Amino acid sequence: RLSLEEVLQWSQSFENLLTSKYGPMIYKTYLKTEHSDENIEFWLACEAYKKITSQRKRISMARKLFTSYIQPQAPNEINIDSPARKAVIRNIQEPTMSCFDEAQRIIYRHMERDSYPRFLESQFYQKLKCSLQTNGINSMVN
What we know:
This protein is 74% helix and 0% strand. The chain is built from eight helices and no strands. The chain has helices at 4-10, 14-19, 23-34, 37-50, 55-70, 82-91, 101-121, 123-141. The longest helix is centred in the C-terminal third of the chain and has 21 residues, at 101-121. The two termini are 19 Å apart.
């Protein structure tokens, strides 16, 4: 269950948001309202990708990540610079655990600087905090 404590932790740092149990899912819901949920999807996919131990699965996942997020006009194309895009293209010829690291770093910084501060200021986050505070008070009174 989502707790007020967890939600308050998110405002401490972007890392707290991404490493908490419900943070990524709730942040993604918010990003959908900004039409930028591909960023968190890509970041989470990279986290999953790094855990793949089978070379065959890694090659398959690397192709999926590339066609979904990296290649020009990809359905969920992320906003990375040309050198980072070229690095991924080079790296996925022989996919390693780290071949998306630079692109992932760029997207992390992008979210941390741009959408994370807006998320904290948003009605979305404020209402969530408020409803948990209200529920907390109600459960103490009852």
